[in-house]
Write a structure and sequence with these properties.
The chain is an alpha+beta fold. Helices cover about 40% and strands about 20% of the residues. A hairpin with a 2-residue loop joins strand 2 and strand 3. The protein starts with a helix and ends with a helix.
Length: about 300
């Protein structure tokens, strides 16, 4: 760490530090977006699901994720709860070579995440207040760099201490050791990935249990412990978030969107959407476009 921080090639500049709430009563949150720099999110309270580069991870209190530059991501809200997050956006220039211990700094993967159990909270708070305090620019920059050095040191130790601390769902061996034991644990290793890829089909707990060769009780227990919400709520959340994006980014009819996200009834889809967002699909589309402008041309939408 000293070799990196003491190198003349190194530089880190925080461009934004904020705290925000992901709440179920909010009409909508930000859709998929990306930044030219890094983004660090620390969950102070509650639960949310993040989509990062096409993968979905559940974020609980004390969890921390660093998203690499240029990786698209968004927040999804859970029905009953929300979460409070401290977020940093920053640019970082690093030496061309470093030890294996800190390779995660270089953004070679879409994201890195740990379950810190609250260990990082004090460091995150110090960085947040240090950014917003009216100290001299030169002193503040040094203070923030030292704060990030401490944060990254602990973060790196957590990553290496055990692969079980990772939130990376596409690598089942790195899912926290809460999936069960023996054959059942192995059978459920790809469950989240399967649901993420098939949420828009006719899918329910009984079908999942049969497909993975386990009991429906095991499916419920898995989602409760791994994700923090029920299987049905998780599937519904995925469907609603995709419906939100389609209402904004496409000119598909509400019936077409309902079918596209797994519902055979427009009326039922509308009822669920209203419960999820507080608005009907039609009103949601109208309000969003009034606030964000008219629907962009098809060619621009395809480049998103």
């Amino acid at each position: 760490m000293l070799d990196i921080w003491g190198n003349s090639e190194f530089d880190i500049t925080i461009t934004e530090a904020c705290k925000f709430q992901v709440r179920s009563e909010n009409p909508y949150e930000r859709d998929l977006h990306c930044h030219r720099g890094y983004e660090l999110n620390y969950v102070n309270f509650g639960l949310c699901i993040m989509e990062i580069g096409g993968s979905f991870i559940s974020m609980h209190q004390g969890d921390c994720v660093v998203i690499s530059p240029g990786i698209s991501h968004s927040f999804m809200k859970e029905f009953q709860r929300g979460c409070d997050i401290t977020q940093f956006e920053y640019d970082m220039r690093l030496p061309r070579k470093s030890g294996t211990f800190f390779r995660f700094l270089y953004g070679e993967r879409p994201y890195e995440a740990v379950r810190s159990g609250g260990i990082l909270r004090g460091m995150v708070e110090e960085l947040y207040h240090g950014f917003h305090e009216s100290a001299q620019a030169e002193f503040r920059k040094t203070y923030l760099e030292l704060g990030f050095a401490q944060l990254y040191w602990v973060f790196a130790n957590m990553l290496l201490e055990s692969e079980k601390t990772s939130l990376r769902p596409e690598e089942p061996r790195r899912v926290p050791a809460r999936t069960g034991s023996g054959k059942e644990g192995k059978a459920l290793g790809g469950l989240l990935q399967y649901v993420n890829q098939n949420y828009d089909t006719k899918i329910n707990i009984e079908m999942l249990a049969e497909s993975f060769g386990v009991s429906s009780r095991s499916i419920r227990k898995y989602f409760s412990k791994q994700v923090g919400m029920s299987c049905i709520d998780y599937i519904t959340m995925l469907r609603m978030e995709k419906a939100r994006q389609m209402l904004w980014r496409t000119d598909k009819t509400i019936t077409e969107i309902a079918f596209a996200v797994g519902y055979s009834s427009q009326q039922y889809f509308g009822n669920v959407f209203r419960r999820y967002t507080g608005l009907s699909p039609g009103r949601f589309r109208k309000q969003l476009r009034e606030e964000s402008g008219p629907l962009m041309p098809q060619k621009e939408r395809e480049n998103l």
